[in-house]
Amino acid sequence: MRNEKPKTTAAAMALAFALGAGMVPADAETVLRIGMTAADIPRTLGQPDQGFEGNRFTGLTMYDGLTMWDLSSSDKASTLIAGLATEWKVEESDKKKWVFKLRPGVTFHDGSPFNADAVVWNVDKVLKQDAPQFDPSQVGVTASRMPTLVSARKIDDLTVELTTKEPDSFLPINLTNLFMASPAKWQKFYDTAEGADAKARSQAAWAAFAKDASGTGPWKMSSFTPRERLELVKNDNYWDKARVPKVDKMVLLPMPEANARTAALLSGQVNWVEAPAPDALPEIKQRGFALYSNEEPHVWPWQFSRVEGSPWNDIRVRKAANLCVDREGLRDGLLAGLMVPATGTFEPGHPWRGNPTFQIKYDKPAAQKLMQEAGFGPNKKLTVKIQTSASGSGQMLPLPMNEYLQQALAECYFDVQLDVIEWNTLFTNWRRGVKDPSANGSNATNVTYAAMDPFFALVRFLQSGMAPPVSNNWGYINNPKFDELVTKARQTFDPAARDAALAELHAASVDDAAFLYVAHDVAPRAMSSKIKGFVQPKSWFVDFSPVTIVP
Amino acid sequence: MFAYIARRIVYVIPIVISVALVCFLLVHITPGDPLVAVLPADASQELAAQLRSAYGFDRPLPVQFGLWLWRAVHGDLGNSIATGRPVLSEVMRAVGNTVMLAIAAAMIGFTLGLLFGLIAGYFRDTWIDKVSTSFAIAGVSLPHYWLGMVMVIIFSVQLNWLPAVGAGPGGSGAWAWDWEHLRYLILPAITTSVIPMGIVTRTVRALTGDILSQDFVEALRAKGLRETEVFRHVVKNAAPTALAVMGLQLGYMLGGSILIETVFSWPGSGLLLNSAIFQRDLPLLQGTILVLALFFVLLNLLVDIAQAAIDPRIKRS
Does the distance separating the beta carbons of B38 and A141 come in below 8 Å? Predict the structure, then answer.
């Protein structure tokens, strides 16, 4: 009998502990803590910096565009859907004018209404230099992504007319990059801002807005510590009820070093990291974390010089290089599965893929035969020089990957020389082109690119008018067929027909072996097994709204 | 003493101007476009020209330097190209975090360094000396970022005792001097302290050994002073040089370590420099380098004054 009481007490305590430990209050806050690869919080004022990682975390979370990407599927290519505009069409009489119907009943986080005035205001913030809200710091990352947009005009409260400088069927796609910030909130800051003149007050207002932002997106800013953390809370009043976030809060933490991100995940400081350290993947899996990856609209290429005297002017050489690389070996070996072999800019299943007749695959005998036909062989190697970087955004593992290509192509009678320079310099040289002294005698450049929209994926490289200094046709490709197909795609306004024209352009570029297509990145991310409902689409972006955290 | 301080302050002026000129020019002669943070490579030529003009990069370099220096003298280091935020506030916030880390690291590194150095010097060529010297050699030889990663793996990932990254559960803006926050400081501070610990140990060991072999020490012993008294004289003689070395080490630490702060995501001046370099954010880069260089100049000035106060021979010379 004497032992019963302690036993009962112990049992009661154990039960209480077990219940306490296992019990989660119904109103417990659920928090996503994400380690980003960015070294700083991307800009929060509406037009993020730091490329598409910026758009992923501080663009699409707090803001919406007139058009958006469908991020709901991991199988299908991410396609364009309605956002703050419900429908749009080009004017039949003047193909430079578009009419967008706006979604009714949408409000900004500060409660002010979203309407045509807000659209005009947001277009003017990057295009109209005499507008009070014009902000040069937002122009670069925005105007270049919608290069033909000229102006916006209100027709009525829920209708707006956008004008382009030339007929451009890509406009609705480009508008995914223009995020709608709240004019009312900005005006409030502007009215109280201090500054010597209107420009200074405008800058001060944008600085204040960045710290207390207001968009229409599914997440609202709750606190912001520059360079350290951004906290977002769910927007219960989001206009798309299906996309009201299921998690209460999201904390974004910049962690540029891959090992630091991985350690933060493994030690439980964060429950989600972007791009974990590749050599830690086995441990991450072994500890029960979930790993996600999917083909991203990203291409890791060699972009060839096509100026007079370039060895790449011979299509047999271009095709031989494409056939001489064992991409599956690269994927399974060096990159531990974290890439998709590239057979073009777009892979089968993508609406802009088309039907190229040249099949990019590993076929060394065919590659050697092509090189021999071109006049090269074991005793007469073709020397090519590639400019690349030792690191850089989207470059994956540039040096080891280029050395892999160097070894692979040596078997097809190429003598590959690498000119390794710093990433930002390489990026700047990209714009200057092969004729510039900065190319340093190279006849190919290795700058990875995003392939989210037709301009970025195809036009800027293939159209002859995009040669430096206009845009990124680094190697001065001048193919009348490409030019004709670009014009056709740009002036085809039915979405399905436009996609068909783009597919035709893409197929033509693959048939011409315009690039050495090597890999697509797969945007690896690792997260706690308690995180459920995440879908990794074939996109640079993700939708955080359906994510849940189980206790 | 006053004349000495005044003279040293006058010397500082041309140094500061030279530092400003060098840090302005250095970042301008590096290749790459200063607008890369806000101007994608696919931006039109017209847009590039428009932004170059808006940011003042189309002006001649001497004009840019003159304007920058004039504003800097008035406490305005301009705005970051990438974030639009004032450089001065960015730098001061980061420097504050680095100072916190540097002081914590200095407390660890200097204490251990002095201890090991004095012991090693006093017991020269004994096993005690060898053990202390081994610590010192390890300290200056191990890559500190590697040590940081190893400590993170052991203490954060495997043992889960200390956080791996960051400056507090709510960031440095919500810093408090309690255990919940201080645990974030431990690993980066230990990692940062390793090199100064090694250098101070080696310096103090050499000084102690050298002073102990001098005639005046024999004289002190011959006068019948106890060994602790003799040791006090040795410490006093070693102090000016040790202080100079520690001052320089503190200066290095106040400059922030890009590697350590990146490994631990510590929001200090090293991480800020890292970000500014990768984003080609010239105003931020120039402002950060200038402020850190001025810290160094100021610290050297203070060390010189402290040395003169300790050792009157310096003042007289």
Answer: yes
